[in-house]
Amino acid sequence: MIDLYTWTTPNGRKVSIMLEEVGLSYTAHAIDIGKDDQFDPAFLKISPNNKIPAIVDDDTGIAMMESGSILLYLAEKSGQLMPIGEKARWQVKEWLMWQMGGIGPFLGQVHHFVRFNKGKSAYAEERYLKEAHRLYGVLDRRLADHEFLADDYSIADIATWPWIARFEWQTIDLREYPCVKRWYTAIAGRPAVERGYGVPIRVGGVPMP
Ligand SMILES: N[C@@H](CCC(=O)N[C@@H](CS)C(=O)NCC(=O)O)C(=O)O
């Protein structure tokens, strides 16, 4: 049994979607980051960086923070969503790291400056929106000749998809990125994604372009 500590955010949804996809049994615990639950000393023992998501695996006694690491752990534990061949495995890790270093941090800043604090810093709005469009362009070009980020559906897609699900917050029109739109819609139609999106509580349906 896995305990998942999470909230209704892209990083949290990566892990609930993964758990739903691979069929491992888990219990979701809501850590409401709007109410500072992430600073509770009991939670800090599991996630010392005071951020969701985090897991505790009763089978192994392993407690883990950082969504990219958790996805790698769950892929290894389940033997799913990570290819076997060397080249393909590295492609998955490459695009997973691209998500962790680019998509997550920069789209997160778009949410802060463009969605929630519009008008506070014209410089930040321009910088992060420009970077968001650049990243969407990279994603669109990759998906122009790959069905998924690393050919087969993998943890690289699971890491990236919940951030793209916030395209409306990012003021991104997915019609500008037709290959992203095709990929996004295909993944949105997966039952496990729909279930994982609603963990730990459902806040509306999966946004559709
Ligand atoms: N690199 C971390 C980022 C996690 C993260 O930023 N979590 C946010 C929610 S999406 C959070 O817990 N924020 C609470 C805070 O910063 O106090 C990961 O991928 O797990």
Provide a brief overview of the structure.
The chain has 209 residues and is α+β, with helices and mostly antiparallel strands. The chain has helices at 10-22, 41-46, 67-78, 86-116, 122-144, 155-164, 178-188, 191-197, and strands at residues 2-6, 26-30, 54-57, 62-65. The protein has a four-stranded mixed sheet with strand order 2-1-3-4, with helices on one face.
Folded structure, characterized:
With 209 residues, the chain is α+β, with helices and mostly antiparallel strands. The protein is 54% helix and 9% strand. It contains 8 helices and 4 strands, in the order βαβαββαααααα. It has a 4-stranded mixed beta sheet, with helices on one face. Residues 9-11, 33, 38, 50-53, 66-68, 104 line the site of glutathione.
Shape: globular
Intertermini distance: 36 Å
Percent strand:
5-15%
Largest sheet: 4 strands, mixed
Number of helices in the DSSP assignment = 8
Regions with little confidence, pLDDT below 50 for 5+ residues: none
The sequence of SSEs as H and E is EHEHEEHHHHHH
Mean pLDDT: 98
Helix content: 40-55%
The rounded Rg comes to 17 Å
Please describe the topology of this protein.
Elements: E1 2-6, H1 10-22, E2 26-30, H2 41-46, E3 54-57, E4 62-65, H3 67-78, H4 86-116, H5 122-144, H6 155-164, H7 178-188, H8 191-197
Parallel strand pairs: 1-2
Antiparallel strand pairs: 1-3, 3-4
Task: Throw out a few tags for this protein.
alpha+beta, 4 strands, 209 residues, globular, binds glutathione, single chain, four-stranded mixed β-sheet
